[in-house]
Design a protein that fits this description.
7 helices
Length: 141
């Protein structure tokens, strides 16, 4: 009977030690997961172009690595463009439009909208500035 008691104590200690190791190792992973979720909510503020590129890529059954090869870049850049953490260059947007069989004007306008938003997103007078720009553009047509 004493032997069983000691065995169960040892088993409990081993289980407790395993659980402690699990908590020790998993806590940073859980923190990273939470931060990545939080990070995505912060940085996916305005990503219409990236979302549209992903949608078109999936619609045409094209892999990110194939898109990267077409643009002579790496897969990481394509991923960042789709996530909205990087902006493609204008010529890359034009190339993407032809490969993805998309309207070039649509992709260029999304690209411009994302760039403009990125510049003015933190400005208090952003709405007023956009109205002024719109008015000036109509006057110059």
């Amino acid at each position: 009977m004493i032997y069983v008691y000691r065995y169960s104590q040892t088993a409990n200690l081993v289980t407790s030690a395993r659980f402690a190791v699990f908590l020790y190792l998993s806590t940073p992973l859980l923190l990273c997961l939470l931060l990545s979720i939080f990070d995505k909510t912060i940085f996916t503020y305005m990503n219409h172009l990236g979302n549209r590129i992903r949608e078109l890529r999936e619609l045409n059954n094209i892999k990110q690595r194939e898109l990267a090869a077409f643009l002579s870049t790496d897969t990481a850049l394509i991923s960042k463009i789709e996530k909205g953490t990087r902006q493609p260059k204008r010529d890359q947007v034009i190339s993407l439009a032809s490969l993805l069989k998309a309207d070039q004007e649509e992709l260029i306008s999304l690209w411009l909208a994302d760039k403009v938003y990125d510049v003015i997103k933190d400005e208090n007078m952003a709405d007023k500035a956009l109205k002024t720009v719109s008015k000036n553009m109509k006057a110059n047509k």
